Amino acid sequence: MTLAAELPVHALRAARIRQLLRLLLVGFYVAVLLTEPPAEQLIPCWVIVGCYLVWTIGTGFLATADPRAQRLLWVALVVDVAVLTLLTLLSDTAATQSWTPYLLINGFFVIPIIAAAQLNPWMCAAVVAPTVLVQFVAGALIRNVGGEPWSYVVLRTVVLSAVGLGAVLLSRLQRARVQRIAGLLADRTALLEELLVVQQREQQDLAEVLHDGALQYVLGARQQLEDVAEGDPSAGQRVDEALREAARLLRSTTSQLHPAVLEAAGLPAALNDLVETVRARQPLQVSLIVEGWDDRLRTPVDSQLFAGARELLTNVVKHAEADRVQVTLRRDGGEAVLTVADDGRGMGSVDLAARLEQGHLGLASLRVRMEAAGGGLGVRAGQPQGTVVDLRLPLLE
């Protein structure tokens, strides 16, 4: 999910909020004209309010029926300001004493709130600034009706400016939240896609291990049984060796598939089986170093570290073109650190966020999983070549 896909949904909700606020503004106009009707220009004021009501209903219907039209509905904010200004100036501006314009001018405080429903802070600011200016001009024109001092006009403008600034900041906050939500949805979608890829890859690796490894030893042992039947004295030993190797490969494969093995044997033993499996299947010099880790230690992050090691070793085998790889498990204060270092071609400068956006999901999705667990993933260049990847997770014993 991208920001472009998420914006229309929030824009539709914002359009409904703007329509509700405009209807409340119409109600405000009606209440003022009923309670404090102007002695002059009353009919034109009712006509303007009626037209504004029709306009509000029409724009609300248009925004709901055609989401593409929402981009053009910012023009309605200009109409809001124009209608309010016209009503204020028409209501007894020629009278010597009237409360109607002073009541109507308070409607300017609603305009910034309507503009805040926009997901574009710049557009909101472009509406708020003229609103403040027009309110000041209208206040200056009607001040003689009731003898309002200039200080009142200025203070009202200052308060409206503060409300407008708050509206712009609120609009910016809304857009930032939408962007954040879109980013989280993108990460979630990427992780789901990566999960499917990992599952397919694990199924393929399992099929290769069973077919090319254990199954071949079992078939070889079966062929050796014929030699045993013929009385070959060394055939029995070869059958035993083949079955032992098949059992070792099956045990190693099981340790990769079933997390219960981690509870039974511990993370170092499970990593050792993983290393032996890679060493047996690939022309790689794979080594394991365990520092400060008790074999009896069991932690909630064992399965995540093991899955991360398996994924990193798979990446090394498929992409690194390395001759040697070293896996290190150690404790660093309250953290567990798993390091996979190879002497391959290296990755250079890696921007994981950019790789995620571009669809390179391996390391990026692993980083997201580590960060979700309160840890992190670091990538750096090896010396003199290669790549070093560090997985860190808080060690909760």
From TrEMBL:
InterPro entries: HATPase_C_sf, HATPase_dom, His_kinase_dom, Sensor_HK_TwoCompSys
Segments passing through the bilayer: 20-35, 41-65, 72-90, 102-119, 126-144, 150-170
Keyword terms of this UniProt record: Cell membrane, Kinase, Membrane, Transferase, Transmembrane, Transmembrane helix, Two-component regulatory system
Pfam families reported in the protein's UniProt record: HATPase_c (PF02518)
Compartment(s): Cell membrane
Record GO terms (molecular function): kinase activity
Keyword Transmembrane among UniProt keywords: yes
Membrane topology, as annotated: Multi-pass membrane protein
Histidine kinase domain: residues covered: 311-397
Main location: membrane
Protein's name according to its UniProt entry: Sensor histidine kinase
Organism: Branchiibius cervicis
Top-level taxonomy: Bacteria, Bacillati, Actinomycetota, Actinomycetes, Micrococcales
